[in-house]
Write a structure and sequence with these properties.
Layout (H helix, E strand, L loop, with lengths): L1 H24 L6 H11 L3 H26 L5 H18 L6 H14 L4 H21 L5 H30 L9 H29 L7 H24 L8 H14 L8 H15 L7 H29 L3 H8 L12
Helix pairs in contact: 1-2, 1-6, 2-5, 2-6, 3-4, 3-5, 3-6, 4-5, 7-8, 7-9, 7-10, 8-9, 9-12, 10-11, 10-12, 11-12
Subcellular location: Cell membrane
Pfam family, one: ArAE_1_C
GO cellular component, one term: plasma membrane
């Protein structure tokens, strides 16, 4: 984290200095503003800065027009600037250019101060935008993506271990272990699931940033992975709620618990859950062959178990969908496999 902050600070400082130097070399008025524009560009990702380049150039036209229209017509400077900001904010929001507002305001202050709308001064302002935005875009190419990727890989390994731990605790609870069921330990598992879900949200944001600092499409793999895990985590939370509704664990609970253990063993990133889904179908067929419940309570408890199996099926299908949507490049790069040879791997 410290290295990321340090790199960002260096990029901002060098980029702003370079922009001002270029603007001064070109003998532009308000050269320091080129540095401000670069700052507003560097704090975004590569894709965002690229998208903003066109929007800022188009936004400049709107800014210059509004400044010309208002500053020449309204005698009061403060009233003119207030009206300018009001209309500019409306226009940028309507056109989807809200991120360009800060740069447009900077340019607007120059027009307000000079009240000069000659071709020379308009060109001066346009060049400030071009210099500041271009330097910001160039500086954004210096990203420590390798470090970020290593951090994401560590997070994935950590998430897999935590999910295995949670599934292990769920299996123990289904087995009805006295030292575990409805004790502070089980409460800790519930809290662990909530904390994991929050952590996954942070990982997802990091994966989006990593993706947006690439022009290739394969880094979307990490975003898809964390999105899938977030949905699976929600299912785990629901499972724990279902288990707490069971008053007396029927015999079938032990079989379901063993299946949960199997799911936990195969929950790792680079594994495709076809075998677990097949085993689940077999388990469901076997449960249909068991004798009917003898009491209402047993019926309700077995119904909850069946619902738990349905949730586990959805849990596995989320992983299967994640695998099925991977491109050939993503399979090769992140799993070391080809699309044609997408052989089932024992998790």
């Amino acid at each position: 984290m410290l290295s990321k902050v340090l790199l960002q600070a260096v990029k901002i400082a060098l980029g702003c200095c370079l922009s001002i130097w270029i603007a001064e070399t070109m003998q532009l008025e308000y050269a320091a503003s080129a540095g401000s524009i670069t700052f507003l560009s560097v704090i975004t990702t590569r894709w965002e800065s690229l998208r903003l380049m066109g929007a800022r150039l188009a936004g400049f036209v709107v800014t210059a027009f509004l400044a010309w229209l208002i500053f020449r017509s309204v005698p009061s400077r403060w009233a003119a600037f207030g009206l300018f900001i009001f209309l500019l904010a409306l226009a940028t929001n309507a056109l989807g250019w809200k991120p360009t507002l800060a740069v447009n305001v900077v340019i607007g202050t120059h027009f307000l101060a000079k009240t000069d709308f000659s071709a020379g001064f308009v060109l001066n302002e346009l060049l400030l935008v071009v210099v500041g935005t271009t330097v910001g875009f160039g500086v954004n190419f210096f990203q420590n993506n390798a470090l970020v990727q290593r951090q994401i890989r560590r997070e994935i390994a950590s998430v897999d271990r935590r999910m295995q731990k949670i599934l292990g605790h769920i299996a123990r609870e289904l087995k009805g272990e006295k030292e575990f069921v409805r004790t502070p330990v089980s409460e800790n598992v519930w809290e662990e699931t909530v904390q994991l879900e929050r952590h996954l949200q942070k990982c997802l944001v990091q994966s989006y940033e990593y993706r947006d600092n690439h022009f290739a499409s394969h880094p979307e793999y990490y975003s898809y992975y964390f999105e899938m895990r977030i949905r699976q985590c929600a299912i785990l939370s629901g499972l724990q709620g279902e288990i707490r509704r069971i008053r007396q664990f029927p015999v079938q609970a032990g079989v379901v618990a063993e299946f949960v253990v199997c799911v936990g063993e195969h929950v790792l990133e680079r594994n495709e859950p076809a075998e677990q889904l097949e085993r689940l179908n077999t388990l469901l067929e076997e449960m249909k062959q068991t004798p009917l419940p003898r009491s209402r309570e047993e019926f309700e408890n077995r119904a909850i178990l069946y619902h738990i199996l349905m949730d586990l099926e959805e849990f596995l299908k989320l992983k299967k969908k994640f695998v099925d949507l991977l491109t050939a490049e993503q399979l090769e790069r992140y799993w070391g496999k080809t699309k044609e040879k997408n052989v089932k791997v024992s998790e």
